[in-house]
Amino acid sequence: MAGPRVALFVTCLVDMFRPSVGFATVKLLTGAGCTVEVPAAQTCCGQPAWNSGDRESAKAVARGVIAAFEGYDHVVVPSGSCAATIVRDYGEMFRDDGEWQARARELAGRTHEITSFLTDVLKVKTVCQAVAGSATYHDSCSGLRSLGVSAQPRQLLASVEGLDLREMEDPDVCCGFGGLFCVKYPDISNVMVSDKTRDIAGTGADMVLAGDLGCLMNMAGKARREGRTFQARHVVEVLAGDMQTPAIGESE
Amino acid sequence: MSHSSPTTPAFRANVRAALDNTNLQAALRGQRGNFVRKRAAAREALPEFDALRDHARDIKNHTLANLDRYLEIYEKNVTESGGTVHWAETAEDARRIVLEICQSVGAKTVNKGKTMISEECGINDHLQANGITPVETDLGEYIIQLRGEAPSHILAPAIHVTVAEVEAAFRQFHDDLDPARDLSDIASLQVEARGRLRAKYFEAEVGITGANLLIAETGQSVIVTNEGNGDLSQSLPKVHIVMASLEKVVPTLEDASTVLRVLARSATGQEAAVYTTFSKGPRRAGDPDGPEQYHVVLLDNGRSGMLGTEFEEMLRCIRCGACMNHCPVYQAVGGHAYGWVYPGPMGAVLTPGLIGVEQGGQLPNASTFCGRCEAVCPMRIPLPKMMRNWREREFEKKLTPKAMRSGLGLWAWFARRPWAYRTGTRVANRVLKTLGKKGSFSSLPLAGGWTDHRDFPAPQSGGTFMDQWKAVRR
Amino acid sequence: MSGRRNILERVRRAAAVHRGDGTGADAVAERLRDRPAPVVPQQARTVGQGRVTQFLTKLEAADATVGRVSDIAELPKAIARELRKRNLPAVVRMGKDDIFQGLDWGSIEASVGVGRVEEPVTLSRAEYGLAETGTLVLVSGPENPVTLTFLGETHFVVLRESDLRSGFEDLWADFRARGLDPRTVNLVTGPSRSGDIGQTLQLGAHGPMALHVFLLD
User: Fold this and answer.
1) 3-class SS shares of chain A: helix, strand, coil, % to 5
2) What is the pLDDT, as a whole number, of residue B2?
3) What CATH code is carried by the domain that includes residue A173?
């Protein structure tokens, strides 16, 4: 029996900065029996325009996404933030356009964040990987509060042999990235990310893991500036056993 | 002391000042997580909490959809009990009405329970300009009134003031007391303020309070406090003035009870506040105490303009403060940076609604949309969504900065054309990779907002994911 | 009066978005008649001994103290004991409530009237107790000055056990059944407090520093 036909929505940041996250996602999906395709017409989910109040641009970009991902059993995203834009925001975006709203809702119904897809849809309970070291997991906001991603990554991480998972204080508090927020309000963002790196360091873990590259680049960049020693990695890298790739912000 | 002229347009400068204020930062850091833990425990202890939130939301939705009728019923019941309802379209109307009432009884001193509506209307300045002394009686409000400040939190107005600063203010303003007295602990400070204010309660001719709720079926106003100052302010003077905005009305006592059940828990984690007082009309025949006159100033000041729009849901707000207690932006900068009466996420949505998006537009932009406010709001107000709506209004009015508008336009042009987008990301990827050989940048042209505070991670080698994928699939 | 007209006109126009034309009046009348309360927490539905126990537990959780009195005639002695225990002067200020009539106060200087600027000890009768939150329900009237509740440094409150109610719903039902419609209803849950200085909770902000309940069998 052939597994589900899954389209990967790779996201702008993974595409441009950290392709290894895309490949780790493919590896996890293939390992779980999926047939993975990467629609060539994909670009961005439209969130930058949507969150900046530019509804028309956001809709124009979203129409492209809706068309590009038509017909797949599932659409899987290695980002809670981009997935939430499709799942939660597209319907609202097309509130005055019934036809596109219906298509948007249809896409929303089969779009998933990666760890939630593995756990909630494919019922994967464990990954067969061994990673020696300690990690702490940061709950990226959109994944946590819009999609309910919280237990899923932790459950999968708990199955990684040799991995010591530690909770930081306030893992569910925003790291201060917030897309354009971090450059629009750098001073506030800096306070937030400083609190976050302090809380991460407080666990003594070797690395911080999260499901969103934006948050990870923010935390990794701050940790490097502060001379902190923990690494930052996308959660799928650990789940797929890809630890050879240098951590985010490290030289190759 | 009042907020008649917002400094909200200077939000960025306000933020800088807040971050440089070491006392403020110490105060904010000192209470980190307190309210969050208390609310979480209260929620944990009440299995029906989330169902009550749904019900509270439904009550307010029903009331707002029929607000004209409930206001008329409320007014009728207040009038029948001997009270008077005054309708104030604007802050200026409210100032005029309050002053007229005070002058009609020859008031020299006016005691004030905590009321944000009075802040919104700039009542204190107006009274003072007309020779009447307003005395804030909430302990926190009293402290900031001495210091000549505005509240920085709708519930804990002096949350930004350290204990040492309170002592300094008391020594400066209570200068008739022995300078050598011991004020070294919090208890002694509170006792001193208590004694000071106790005398004031008996001097005032008028007491002004806010209202957490107005109840249509009974014509009652409700205040919720922990100190008891609101009750003393309204029971001892000849005249009680309630200042309330239109949307405070609920239909019945049962509806009020539902709101009360989520209010204190969301605010301070208490099951019930110490004092919840239902007031109806003036002193009756035979009553040994209570005010001889009971007035309600019903304030619109822009709220009716939010009704029936995408911002209507904001009118469900019951001012519990949970959103700001859980907001990482508020927790970083405190309330004064917001530049007007209402701080935090609720302020970021309400402020542009009341003073206009031209003046208040910074606030809904200063959010990461982390969603923690919406997650804890007892009235389930979708605060991030409404902040986004404000950004949309800004964009439509072309108030969004030009650089950002053209940047977005350019980005959208590419994002709609996959072939162009591919080329663009390929070029950007190579440039960043070539420049960022050490794994990350410590500075990057045009990205100062990022690199002033943190390194910028460079891309991995090997090109974009889409290019690599194409190559392996070939 | 134009303010009233203008506001109501604007509100009415906006409300039309929700209710089209004219259906609202029925919905409003219905709600005021039926007073739906679809969510009543378990803790507002206790009965019997469980109700008493919960009331006492919650009262104490709110930093109030409680003692039992088997007969109202015992009240002065019970108060005298509390005054001694708390090292307070032998005075008490109270209203004219029927329940206090004819009590023998012995050496306690008992006076009747409203609260004055300094009141070491005040005494009130609560009309009801709410087991839901350990709350006392006091109502104003000729017998019950409101100011006694807020001006006493120590506030004593007498509550008959039979006046305990489970939660808001049966409380308001009782108010309506009795036609009880006082100017002021004071719900009191513990002594006065503030966290405004240094975000540290201190009892006795403006109102009582201590609240003691005499639960009457």
Assistant:
1) 50, 15, 35
2) 41
3) 3.40.50.11810
Taken in order B393, B399, B402, B404, is the CA torsion positive or negative? negative
DSSP string, C164-187: EESSHHHHHHHHHHHT---SEEEE
Distance CA C117, CA B122 (A): 30
Per-residue pLDDT tens digits for B369-402? 999 999 999 999 999 999 999 999 999 999 989 9
Are B and A touching by the rule of 3+ CB pairs within 8 Å? yes
B84 touches chain C (CB under 8 A): no
Predicted confidence (pLDDT) at residue B137 exceeds the cutoff of 90: yes
CB spacing of B465 vs A23 below 8 angstroms: yes
**Last residue of a domain, which of B272, B299, B326?**
B299
> What are the tokens at C77?
């002695």
Whether residue B343 lies inside any domain: the answer is no
Number of domains in chain B: 2
ipTM (interface pTM):
0.97
pLDDT of residue A165: 97
Selecting from B395, B437, B468 the residue whose C-beta is nearest the C-beta of A19 gives: B468
Q: At what angle do helices A186-203 and A213-226 cross, to 10 degrees?
A: 80
B341-B150-B84 Cα angle (round to 5) = 60
Question: Domain containing A134: what range?
Answer: 125-239
Residue B1, pLDDT score: 37
Q: Residue B25 sits in which domain range?
A: 8-299
Give the domains, in start order, of chain C with CATH numbers: 1-36 (no CATH), 41-216 (3.40.50.10420)
Which residues of C are less than 8 Å from B270 in CB distance? Answer: 189
Paired strand residues for C94: C112, C123
pLDDT by 10s per residue, chain C, length 217: 699 999 999 999 998 888 765 566 788 999 999 999 899 999 999 999 999 999 999 999 999 999 999 999 999 999 999 999 999 999 999 999 999 999 999 999 999 999 999 999 999 999 999 999 999 999 999 999 999 999 999 999 999 999 999 999 999 999 999 999 999 999 999 999 999 998 889 999 999 999 999 999 9
pLDDT, mean of residues B124-130: 97
- Any chains having at least 3 CB pairs less than 8 A from chain B are A, C
**Torsion (CA) B288, B289, B292, B298 in degrees, nearest 10:** -140
- Whether residue A20 and residue B460 make contact (CB cut-off 8 A), yes or no, is yes
Among B260, B284, B299, identify where a domain stops.
B299
d(CA B60, CA B130): 38
> Could you tell me if C46 lies within 8 Å of chain B, comparing CB atoms?
no
Rounded to whole angstroms, how far apart are CA atoms B130 and B133? 9
Spell out the alpha helix ranges (H) of B174-295: 186-201, 229-235, 253-267
**Residue range A5-34, pLDDT digits in tens:** 999 999 999 999 999 999 999 999 999 999
CA triple A109-A111-A115, angle to 5 deg: 125
A100 touches chain B (CB under 8 A): no
